[in-house]
Fold:
Amino acid sequence: MSLHLGIDTGGTFTDFMLYDEEQRSLKAWKVLSTPGDPTAAVITGLQQVADPGQISSVRLGTTVATNALLERRGARVAYLATRGFRDVPFIQRGNRRSHYDLSWVKPKPFCLRRHAFEVTERVDHTGAVIVPLDVKAVRRLARHLAETGEVEAVAVNLLFSFLRPDHELAIRDIFAEEAPDLPVSLSYEIDPRWKEDQRAMTTLADAYVKPLVGQQVRSFRARVVEAGVTGRIALMKSNGSEMSTEAAEAQPVNLAVSGPTGGVTAAKHLAAVKSIDNLVTLDIGGTSTDVSVVVEGRERFTDDYELEFGIPLRVPMIDIRTIGAGGGSIAWIDKVGGLHVGPESAGANPGPACYGFGGTRPTVTDANLVLGRIDPQSFLGGKMTLDAAAARAAIETVAAPHGWSVEQAALAILRIMNNNMVGALRAVLIEQGFDPRQFTLMTFGGAGSLHVCDLMHEANIPLGIVPNHPGQFSAYGFTMADARSDRRRSTLLSSRDFDLARANAVLADLSREVLEDLHKQGHDSGIELRRSMQMRYLGQNYELEVPLTVDRFTAEGMEAIWRDFHDRFEERYRFHLPDEPIEMVDMGCTAIAHMPKPELPRLPVAAGPAEPDATRMVTFEEGCLPTPVFKRHALAAGHGFDGPALVEEDVSVTVVRPGFRLEVDVYGNLVISAGKTANKGA
Amino acid sequence: MRFAANGFYVESYDKCCNCGVLLYRRDAAIERDKGGLVCGKWCLQWAENGAQDVAASSGAADRASYRGKTDVVDLKILDGNLASICRDMGVTVMRTAYSPIFSESLDFTCGLFDASGAMIAVGDFCPSMIGGMPLIVQAIVDEYPVETLEEGDVIVHNDPYRGGMHTPEHTFLKPIFRQGALVGFAGAIGHIGEIGGMVPGSFFAEATEAFSEGLRIPPVRIKRAGQDCPDVWKMMLANVRTPRANYGDYRALIAAVDLGERRLLELVERYGASGFAGAAADLLDYSEARMRAEIADIPDGRYAFEDMMEDDGVEARALPIRTAVHVGGNEAVVDFNGTAPQARGPMNTPLSVPQAAAFNAFLQITDFTIPKNAGCFRPIRVLVPPGCLLNVEFPAPSVGGNTECHPRIVYTVLGALAQAVPDRVPAADGGTWSNFLFGGTDPRTGEYYTSYDLHTVGWGGRNGADGNDAVSSMNGNCRTIPVEVYETRYPWLVEDWSLVPDSGGAGEFRGGLGMQKTILCRADEVVVSHVGDRQQVAPWGLNGGGVAALAATRFKLAGSEDWNDARETYGKVSPSKFANVVVRAGDRVHIAMPGGGGWGDPARRPPETVVDDVLDGYLSREAAQSAYGVAVPVPEKPGSA
Structure:
């Protein structure tokens, strides 16, 4: 039982990564996904494992919840709200997606208004019950819903349930008796925090995907067991950790943003191995790019996320920002000759012009192809041949109006694309008060390594890394995921009259809840507990997170906590308000059961200089240059060369610009530095 | 504009009698033979000869294509970098400000300006300020010549008679120097929630003079060479009800211009000062060319439309807003001649409001990827006679005009343009905010609190889609405050927070629904003011679509069973604009917002869609029958708890 398997389900491919603890070896492979049956590819891929009985853990990253939400293929949901408030998810917050788009259609919540019901009850902002729950009416409604079969799941969101959950709990119990087949999602369990609109959407999303996720998870589990796996079977959560299949069924909304988390987990591990403190990760795909940061060895978390405009999902997740730019982003010319790239994307179908699926509009991938950076013969390890003529013809459409050559136009497209990326990257860093110069850029996914040098150059980042298996990096991250439970609760307290007893009671509750959550999933020992507070100056509306270093509040300890907040505010915004009262909004607890991390296999040390496999003409800003092409699998530890150069592997190409240097470290990572005199990376 | 000889106060605000712009330098103006001043030759010609061929008058046919030295790729990159600086400035304001009107409702924006004060980029925050900022900054630059400025200065300004939009809108502007030379400005503008005056929240709906609308601040330095000017801080904070919150808001806006300065300097470093100035000028030309290309696609002609504000809070008399949009070649003139004269009450606006609103209307129907800067506004001239409702003269009041007139002006201009580009224009949106302001003393802390609530309306139906429900009017992009936050902070219990059935105008594509709320007072007393509209004149439909339902603001006093408006309950002149009403424990207030107008003949709406509307409660059975002729039977078993 020494094998750990990570599986990342994607729309086109399902990626596999197997780590053998005894052999200290890694094996990566890909299987074509089957539309409509995500488990099919899993079972096909499992056949690559000689003895499934040796698998100690399988961890699956699934998009079933995400896709159901995005494509609106979930269940018919009944929404139960406090009397007077059934329209909260319909009204939302009143802002619009764009100032200047009169064709915009406001998104609908995950239920029909005819299925939004009100129950007589009311709790006020102190937690006092001012109208008791009309139990009889709830019972009638539950019976009615059970009899008619109008809905398949129930979401309950009562005002101030984060202060007093009694009425939500009572409704759950009534439904358990009267409508036992209807799954019920409670806002108190999913997101016990203030701002009822965000809680509403999150709770609705949970109920919306529950029947479908339940069915898929049970099928996945059964078929994996049938294939001979006796080890632990788990799913990936949006916070980058794993959870049991039962936990996923109980609260499926936690799956929603789990897809891209594996890459961040793997990046964090690699950063630790290489003693890199600060990392910014960039995963460039066909239609979108994910950006995330690791600061002082830790990933950042958030729960400020919108699935689409107006649909917030407030679940704990790794802070990954997605921008709508990728290899498929389309270049176009406006009425006066201005060149733009995106936001429209050719997606996978028709895809870039060079795919030969009928696309005629020029994309970023087409630009990379005509510049010689991608070899039309070896795309996806030779599984697909690209149509270079089609790419040229497409680029010509934006070149001709300016009298540019195709190469000039392609370079222009890349410059704009890279600038869009750097904008996103800088926004992520600068918004959080970080200096890009103190970061290392790690790129993975299909297209990231094509742009790594350009982005380092534009964003002023001195060091870049293209890790091993960039195409299966997320699956790799899954093999080492911890189990983690996060819980936050709104608890408004002020520095003017800090209520120690209440604060300590909430903190104790939260610790108990996260420990219980992990306990239910079989994790009992070696658990790390972290506590934190969301604080702001009284009157502000956004908080800063302040880690709590003690396990309970004491009167003597408060001064240090307030001072810590002032310092963090100053560091972040370059000013602070020393005499102002401070407000504490949410308290949070996180329990982590750490999992063993794979020991990275080492490459043999190079005996001589790296030998290029071929040389071809590649166009850079500096001109069209003969460029050596190296095969990644032929590189050994200690190899190094200056740009221009390309390193090809099955799923991606690393472009080393003139003026940059690439070194292969002992694990086989490609370490890129700006300037030929840069220190050797190891 | 003429200052007193001592330089400390203004003796007269001179304006161009054709376009209405404030004339800072009298020597640059032209005196007409018939008397009166105009700002330049174009206005002289228009004033002498009346409306004429717009394209011929401009001589700008060649400016519809971009011919600058900076190549289009570099322009795109420059614009992206400038926009990201503005965005980061805005995030700083949002995250550090105290007033919920900033942090939740995003009623602010941030911009960057070149050394002449022309706006080169602006953050995508409050739309009314995006179009209003150019005039405000121009006024500051006119009043502070370069040689009077030092590195580290920050100027504050809110004067509606010098480019401002209304007194709550405060602009903070910081000149940016590199090696001793001015390279540009960073600006942040935001709606400060309380600035003194007659009522908590400063929206004195019954004002007849500016002096009751809060503290008016001409352009003055709040920081000088990097140091706070304590005299100015003390003066400003002594004249407001909530100095602690105001202090926090001012600091947030200053932090934003400081960030803008740092980031712009980094950018200028990459170009060199003259390289940057050249590229920025080209960016403005490029935006101008984009807008001209859009206007060139609008058929030439004169398109007129009118709507009205129902009253001004002081007199019960409707105030028409009339516009004639002249489109010729690649230019447009938006002429507001014929609009009602200046009102006695505070529904007037300064010139920056109709300017911003006219720009806003054009941005709504043109390519939204055009970079927003002073360049894209060049091809649109806005003419507003001085002394009319939309170009207020000192010292007439104006606090309500910016919020309530702006959306009406946008849709009046759009209504005119609907004749030219019918498929791009929806029916009218609800077009009001029912600004609900209140304040009192917090019994827990003894501190004064004030709040400013906004409410959302239905959008009009459009070709291809129903109007959206419960969305901001066109001049803001504001988020409402969640009920749980509201009740925690303020002494109200919200009893209802819902969509108003039947509020959308009937149509093939019906109007969206407005929202409504009912609140119960839980404090001994709360002082309430209100500025709204659309309680007597409904939002219009288009192409045969019906009008939307009206807004309403009503009271039910403790112990009474009846709902009455402010006229009946408190003896006010207007149901939608009233001030300083004392609401006591147990009293209730109900605010209902209008929907949007309908688009197209209601008979063309598919009956099954009408049935769905009834099942989902957007439409009553009665309205389905009367407006659409569709009978929807009552189900045997109602599915409600």
